Amino acid sequence: MKVHNINGTSQRICKCGSWLKHWQNYSGQSLYYCPVISCMEGIEVGAHVQKDSQYDRNWYIIPLCAKHNAATKQSLDVADSLKLVSANVSETCG
Prior knowledge:
The protein has one domain. 14% of the residues lie in helices and 21% in strands. It has helices spanning 19-27, 66-69, and strands spanning 2-5, 45-51, 60-64, 76-77, 85-86. The chain has a five-stranded antiparallel β-sheet with strand order 4-1-2-3-5.
């Protein structure tokens, strides 16, 4: 699945304490490595992303390493088994 980072979201907050914790609370998954295909870096942040799709413009949270979180001008190919968690806190922790 292809996703891309959303710029300018660092000031957004949720009740989980961090966006990484938000993803952990609502995904039901445990990951230790960045889900970008062929990346073996450790997870550092919960990143705001959108699917590369004209039909789904929702915002999601996924775990990423620092390098891929900084990659704002390219699509990221993540594992299809990765669960995307809604960044809309009214649907989750709001």
